[in-house]
Amino acid sequence: MAAPGRPFSFIAGLRALPAGIWALGFGSMLMDISSELIHSLLPLFMVGVLGTSLVTVGIVEGVAEATAAFAKVFSGALSDYLGRRKRLMVFGYALAAFSKPLFPLATSVDWVFAARFADRVGKGIRGAPRDALVADIVLPRLRGAAYGLRQALDSLGAVIGPLLALLFMFWFANDIAAVMWVAVIPAFLTVALLLRYVREPARVGAEEGARPPLRLGDVRRLGGAYWWVVGIGAVFTLARFSEAFLILRVEDVGVPLGLVPLALVVMNLFYALCAYPAGQAADRLDARRLLLLSLLLLILADLLLAGAGSPWLAFAGAALWGLHMAFSQGLLAKLVADSAPLALRGTAFGFFNLLSGLALLAASVIAGTLWQQFGAAATFLAGAAFAALAALGLLAWRVPGGPGDGAGR
């Protein structure tokens, strides 16, 4: 254990995290293996096999993610009301698991939309309770590290998933539907792992008395600092549209079909390697500087992807995209936990994800439209412009929940 007031070392910080955080992390990893195995091939399946337009890809991706965001609001608020989060979380993972066989069975974009809808509803149901449960389980001084570890393991799954896609695309001679069946196995393993190893602490919010009612007026209790975090998170999402367009860009610069999933491998490898160190840094460094660094990385990624004339430049853009995710996603989750009242923590994550999901819907539709009308470069240049706008907002913002700030604890 580190001396009081001194930061944990890398290894000591890992050892200090409770077993429940590790179980949540490995559960995220297994589900992401399943999801990313499918998602690394899904845009190619929609465009190449089903003949879907790029605008429709953007709409399907955006609506799916926005649906997840709406579900997170209700599941987060419900977990606050019930004072229990695990059951809702496991139900969400189970729904996503049962959606996986629908993808290889799809014969039209309507089937894909239905599968994505069910999958994202499951993600929405589990997301806010899981993120709130992380904060419930871990000590406040370890929140950044805890969210960073979960994101790192989640991203490791997002590396393994596309690698398995590459392996099985070779094994099944580029039969995308056959490869998608492999994703069913880790999805159901996730549910079994979480049921067995996640232990929820005593009833959430018991310190504050009676069970909190579900009232719209309670939203006012979230406070201005929290809503600043939500606003910044939404602008971040506008700057970073669906990863489906990253996949399509890699194919656009001449990467063979069977190797396209390498784009997600590269992106998530850098994400996985840096998410935990970035989370540790968030526990002791200025949040605004870390977020500005993440935006700079995203701007560089978008500029590389806009001007990419070779696979190497496209993969370099994917790597920078992953670094941006590492320095922003865990930190934003920590800021939500730090700025929200304990009794409304699930609700807070729900609204944060709702606004981010709506921003993703808008960003994905804009990205698809720009690509179809003006080409790939316009899509990524627009992303860079939104990232620059987010940076300007951060320069005018006093970040809550920094080191020494006891908000939300």
Folded structure, characterized:
The chain has 409 residues and is an all-alpha fold. Helices cover 76% and strands 0% of the residues. It has helices at 10-16, 19-39, 42-49, 54-82, 86-99, 102-105, 109-137, 143-171, 176-182, 184-197, 223-239, 244-252, 262-282, 287-307, 311-339, 345-374, 376-395. Helix 2 packs antiparallel against helix 10, helix 5 (86-99) runs antiparallel to helix 10 (184-197) and helix 8 packs antiparallel against helix 15 (311-339). The radius of gyration is 20 Å and the shape is globular.
User: On the 0-100 scale, what is the average pLDDT?
Assistant: 80
Poorly predicted spans: 1-7, 204-210, 401-409
Backbone CA Rg: 20 Å
Strand count: 0
Number of helical segments with 4 or more residues: 17
Helix/sheet category = mainly alpha
